[in-house]
Amino acid sequence: MRIKRVVSCLLALCLLLAGQNAFAASGKKSKAKQEITVLYHGNVTRRYTQSDTSVYPKMDKNSTPIKFLKPGAKIDITAIYPAWVEVKEGNGVGYILRNRIDIEADGAVDPVNTPPYPVIEHYYYAYIDRNVEVKAEKSADSNTLSTLTKGAKVALMGVEDGWAKLVFKRQYGYIDTRYLSELYPIASNIEAAGTDEPLAVFTSFYKDTDDEANLGRINNLAVACGYISKTMAPGESMDFNRTVGPFSAANGYRSAPVLKDGETKISFGGGSCQVSSSLWDTLMQLPGITVTMRKPHGNSGASYLPHGMDASSGASNLNLKFRNDYPFPIRIEASIHDFALFVAIYKGT
Fold first, then answer.
1. In the structure, how many helices (H) and strands (E) does the chain have?
2. Nearest residue to 123 via CA among 150, 160, 84, 83
3. Parallel, antiparallel, or unpaired: how do β-strands 184-185 and 200-205 relate?
4. Domain residue spans in the chain?
5. Sequence-separated (6 or more) residues with CB below 8 Å from residue 231
6. Is 64 within 8 Å of 55 (Cβ atoms)?
7. Could you tell me which of 297, 327, 138, 312 has the C-alpha nearest to residue 235?
């Protein structure tokens, strides 16, 4: 059971306004006690057997490593970030790239209050009613990562110092809340939720360039979003490939880049993996959904998401399958607008 399913919206809001969030902040050291809380047990992956894994003093690959770990070495993870994990190192902490680690099957130290890796829980969402910039830091002077335009919808992890926090590819992004007309909460109690409040939401971002390959990809995102936007009865399963395919011109798809086994190729339906990935990241926030098949895009994953949060599709061995194990229908709504792909899951009727 996740935190947001057992606390009220008011308590969640208080925690968020105090500068916490459901994912990374839960693993940070307490400023009052300077304690280090271990969230997950894991190990250095054995995928890279020819090299040791660096532990850095900060989230910077150009910094001098403080030590090197052999494949299979045990690690205690104290915080999760889009591209990094913070690990306990003596009386302090160090940082390892996420593609260099594996989490144990029962890795969560406190599975009641810690979401399963690599879930990122979201507490709010917003409708964009004017152009707003997504900043790299909680500062108007920081770099602009993207500009959301009127009509976009965005999932939010929480609020920190007056800034709405979100996941932007492999880093966090921030929106000044003064430019958001309203923040809508995610349902804090699934059983008591109405049909108009989302049970879970997720946003991923994509390029909005006008080259032919990317225009084909954007078209495919919209087509696949349309196919998965449906209601599922209790006990019903979805096979993503079957639901959105076949990937052909007859079904509305165009040629676009496809990431397969770490290589980029051009094929009909290119981009649909971002839809399956964003759907999976939404589903994983719901304990009543059972995922029966999911595979990542190789060791590096998909660059438009935090490492390890992608779900490939488009082939018999690359697919997303899941089942609605809630005693009520669920309704999936997915859409794109400019740079943002938004997925929300509601109670169905």
1. 4, 24
2. 160
3. unpaired
4. 24-108, 120-349
5. 329, 330, 331, 332, 348, 349
6. no
7. 327
Structure pTM? 0.89
CATH classification code of 24-108: 2.30.30.40
The whole-angstrom separation of Cα 9 and Cα 102 is 33
pLDDT tens for 169-198 read 999 999 999 999 999 999 999 999 999 999
Q: H helices within the chain, ranges in order?
A: 9-17, 212-228, 240-244, 272-283
Tell me the residue type at 222. A
Alpha carbon dihedral 77, 79, 80, 85, in 10-degree steps, equals: -50
From CA 63, how far away is CA 305, in angstroms rounded?
24
pLDDT in tens, 79-89: 999 999 999 99
Pairing of strands 124-127, 92-97: unpaired
Residue 229 has a pLDDT of: 98
User: For the chain, how are helix, strand and coil distributed in percent, rounded to 5?
Assistant: 15, 35, 50
Please give the Cα distance from 301 to 312 (Å, whole number).
9
Q: Bridge partners of 133?
A: 147
